[in-house]
Design goal:
29% of the residues lie in helices and 35% in strands. The chain folds into two domains: 13-143 and 205-240, Vaccinia Virus protein VP39 (Rossmann fold); 147-201, S-adenosyl-L-methionine-dependent methyltransferases (N-terminal domain of TfIIb), CATH 2.20.25.110. The chain is α/β, with parallel strands linked by helices.
Length: 241
Amino acid sequence: MKKSAYSALGDVFEELNKDCDYEKWSQYLIKKLKTLGAGEKGLDAGCGNGYFTRALCRAGYYVKGMDLSCEMLSKAVELARDEGVGAEFLLGDITDFKLNGAADFIVAVNDCINYIPPRKLLTAFSNVCKNLVAGGIFIFDISSENKLRNIIGNNMFAEDGEHVTWLWFNSLEKNRVNMDVTVFTLQDDGTYARSDESQTQYIYSEEKIKETLEKSGFSVTAEGHLGGSKLERINFICRKL
C-alpha cells in the first residue's frame, strides 16, 4: 500500500535534490530578506530535511522549521545536530499552524505551495498572514504551469545512486499531477529496502496565486526563479499589509 507524501522520501529527500543548487537558492533567500528589511525571527514552512532552516540560522536568523512529515523532520533534526546548528523543528501544516508569537518572515521553499489543494489555498495564505507581524515578509515559489503540464506530467523519471535508487511515475489530470514514487534504500547488510508513496501537486497560474495572496492581505511581486526565468519556477515576494 502506498503511503502519504514524503514518508518514503523523508530520509533521503535532501540527498536526492542536490541538483537544485541549495547554496545558490539559500543565498537568494538571504539576500531578499536583507533587502526587504525583514526582522530576525522566521519560519521555514514545509522545511523538509531542513537545508534552508539551517542556512538561515547560520546567516544569523532565528528560524524554526516546520513540516507535516514526521520522516522529514526526523532527518532535519539529525542533520541540524550533525552540523551543529541549533534549529528548532515543529510538526505542522501551513494551512492551520499557529506560532507562539508572530514571525518577522515566513519562507516556503521548493514546491510547498503546489501541494496545497485549491480549496485550501486561501486558507493557507490567510493563515500565513495571521502569523506574521505587520509588514512581515512571505517568500515562496511554485513549479509553473509549463513545468507541471509539459515536463513533469505524464512522464517518468529515475535515478540510480550509490545508496538510493528511485522511480517517479507522473500522470497529468486536469489541474493536478498525480505522482507515484518508489524508493530502494541500501541497508547495512547489502540488501535494499523498498518504500512506496503517492503525492499530488496542483497546478496554479501566476495570476491565481497573486489574486489569492491579495485577498489574504498581502502585496505581492513575482519573478523568475532566483531572479531568472519563469519558465519552470516562479518566486513570489510578499509583504503583509
